[in-house]
Amino acid sequence: MRTEQLEYIEAVTRLGSLRRAAGELHLSQPALSETVRNLERELGVSLLDRHRSGAKVSDEGRELLPHIIGVLESVDRLRRAAHDQHQSSRVVRVGTVNAATAPLLVPAVRAFRETHPATQVEMVGSQQDDIHRGLREGRFDLGLVNYLDGDDTPPDFDTTELLRGRPVVCLHPDSPLARLGAVSPADLETEPFIAMRAGYVMHRYAHRLLGGSPPSFAYSTDGAELGKLMVAEGLGAALLPDFSVVGDPLERAGMITHRPLTDETTRVLVVLQRRRSDSFPRAVRELYAAFVNRATELRERP
Questions:
Q1: Measured between alpha carbons, how far is 29 from 122 in angstroms, rounded to an integer?
Q2: CA angle, corner 244, sides to 111 and 261, nearest 5?
Q3: What distance, in Å, lies between the first and last C-alpha atoms of the chain?
Q4: What's the pTM?
Q5: Which residues pair with 48 in a beta bridge?
Q6: Closest CA relative to residue 46, chosen from 66, 32, 60
Q7: How does pLDDT run across 137-174, given as a tens digit for each residue?
Q8: 109-114, long-range: CB within 8 Å, 24+ apart, which pairs?
């Protein structure tokens, strides 16, 4: 049974005659009639009443018509879904708080591109709340965000922990604090502080850490990437997760360094999130897997 056979029967029924259906379908009447005969033989039912004056749908054909239309509508939905999936697979949108860009984000995207060279990956830096809103609204396919250990995650998202790190002080190599083995909250008062803006996990962490004697916040910025650039220019020190500093091109070039905090046991998580759904375009699933695979490689390093 072929889909076009069902389409032909639907046309004959709708137009009331074999002749008019053949005209609409741009077929000869004999060709259309033979196609219908083949379907009748397969179903064991006479779908047309044939007379010298022409052929019309039989009573049996009319009874089967709702089933025929149902099949055609299902096929149409399948085609539309496949088209939508193909279109949505051409661009995968990732909202990110710029967490673990060098060790995680860039290698995962590079690995994905090797098998999906025609798929565009759009990475949008944003705050956690904006990323969550974008996931719910369908503007983002995936979200890469930070949490402090123990934070609750939204129940309407699938959340996969990728990396677990610790807060560190990101410094210029010439900073006096770089001579220390570890930096205390009191030490941070000795030079300008580069804070993350409200809405970032490290903003919340800094206020918790420095709540007793907060330094004068000389600067505030969006995300770790700009914060590291400001540190590299000697403008101050920043509190960042170690996975956002270690292996960064600025660190490899000797333009930034980092020191642990004294007596600090807090852990910072980078997680991958997506809205709960039964199906995703293949490209989204495979980029998700690329992030998970890269995180596994990083965790298994000695």
A1: 53
A2: 150
A3: 59
A4: 0.69
A5: 57
A6: 60
A7: 989 999 999 999 999 999 999 999 999 999 999 999 99
A8: 109/287, 109/290, 111/290, 111/293, 111/294, 112/286, 112/287, 112/290
